[in-house]
Amino acid sequence: MMINALKRIVLAVFATAVVVCFAPLGQIMPPAAAANLLFTNNASTTLASAITNTSTSLTVAASTGSKFPHPTGSQYFRATIVKNGTPSQFEVVKVVAGGSGDTFTIQRAQEGTTAQAWSVGDYFNIFITAADMADLLQADDLQIQSGNYAVDSGTINAYVVSLAPALTQHQVGMPIRVKIANTNTGASTLNPGPGPIAIVTPDNQALQPGNLQGGGIATFIYDGSHYQLVTPFKPIFSQIGGQIGTAQVPLSAVAQYAPVIFTNASLTGIPTAPTASPGNSSTQIANTAFVASAISGGVGSTGGSNPWWEQRPTGIIEQWGTYTYTTHTGAHLISFGRTFPAEVETVVITHAASNIGWDTWIQAGTVNASNFQINDDSPNFNTVTIEWRAIGR
Predict the structure, then answer these.
(1) What is the pLDDT of residues 268-284, one digit of tens each?
(2) What CA–CA distance (Å, rounded) separates 389 from 319?
(3) Contact call for residues 277 and 341 (beta carbons, < 8 A)
(4) What is the DSSP letter of 128?
C-alpha cells in the first residue's frame, strides 16, 4: 500500500508539471481540448457510499472533495476507482461536474475499462492515464498545428470552417488557417464555429474583390471585433496594375492599399504601361515611349524624307512636304505623313518649281484626316512641284 501511495504522489506531481508546461498553448491542443483537462496534486480518497455499475455520480469521504478539481462547463478530469485490497481491479471514470462539496458527476467505463459496482472504502484517485497523455500537446502537434487548420465549407463571401477541437468562442489572438473554396467578390465573413464575424484587412478595411483566392490558404487572427486577414495576397499588386478607368478595379481598392505600397516602395523588374496619345496632358502615367516622343518633338517620316510631321507639346500637329505631278485638268490626291487624330485646321500650298502657263490655276480641294486633294485647270501638260503644309490636331 505504501508503494501504491508513493506512485500516486509521483504521478500526481508529474501531471501538474505537464500542465504548467503545456497549458499556455491553448487551442493548439489535439482534439480532446487539453486546455479543459484539470489536475491537482496528491488527490486520493475513498468512497463514502457504494455505487452500482450504472451510477452516474459518486460521493467521496467527508471533506476530501476539496482535494480534487471541480469542473465547470467543458472542463473535466479523469479518476481511477481501485478496489481496496485488490489493486488489479479498477475502473477509469471521467469526472465532468462537481460542486464545492464531496459529490461528483461521472461518465463510466473510460479507456477500455468496465463499469463495476464499488463499495464504501474503495479508492478514488487521480492517476495519469493514457488518454490524459494523448490529450496533451505532442511534438508533431506543435509542428503541424492541425487544430488551427481547416478547409472552407462555406459559400462566396461567407467562409465556414470546422476546427478540431471545435471552437466554442472566438479567441483573441488565435490564428486560423483556411483553405479558401471560393474567391471573394466583396466584404466577407468567417465562421470558425461560434458564428460569423466580419473579415477586415490589418488597417480595419472591408475586403475588396479578389482578396481571398479560391484554392489559396489564408491566415486570420481574431482581434476582439473582427478576423484580420494577415497573409499577403496578389490583389495588393494586381489592383494597382488594373484598368481603373474601365472599372476593372475600383478606385477605392487602389486607394486602400496605396499607403502600404508607396510608403516604402521598391519596385523591381520592368513594369509597363499603355503609351498615351501624343500631346496628352492628363494625369495618365507617361511611359518612356511617350517621354521620348515628347522630348524629340515627335518628328517622324514615312516613305523616306517626304512628307514630314511634327507634334507640339500642346498637341498641335504640323505636317509638310512636296509633291510633283504633271498638270492637267482634274484632282490629285496627296497623303499626309500620319493621320490627324481629331481634325485638320488648314492646308496651304505654294509653287516650288513649275513650268505652267498663265492660264493654270491650282488650289486645295477636299481635305480629310489622312489626305487632301489639289485641283488645277491647266489645259496643257506641264510638270509642277508644289510645297504644302497642313496644321491640325
Answers:
(1) 677 778 888 766 778 88
(2) 6
(3) yes
(4) -
* pLDDT at residue number 118: 98
- Give the pairing of strands 175-179 and 149-151: parallel
Query: What value does the mean pLDDT take over residues 24-34?
Result: 40
User: How distant is the alpha carbon of residue 24 from its chain centre?
Assistant: 29
And the C-alpha cell for 186?
Answer: 466583396
CA-based torsion, 53, 54, 60, 65: positive or negative:
positive
Phi and psi at residue 297, to the nearest 5°: 85, 0
Q: Where residue 302 falls among pLDDT bands split at 50, 70, 90?
A: very low
Q: Which fold has domain 300-392?
A: Immunoglobulin-like (2.60.40)
DSSP assignment string, 321-339:
EEEEEE--SEEEEEE-SS-
**What is the percent of the chain where pLDDT is above 90?**
43
Rounded to the nearest integer, the mean pLDDT of the chain is 79
Q: Where are the domains of the chain?
A: 2-135, 145-233, 300-392
Residue 28 C-alpha cell reads as 493548439
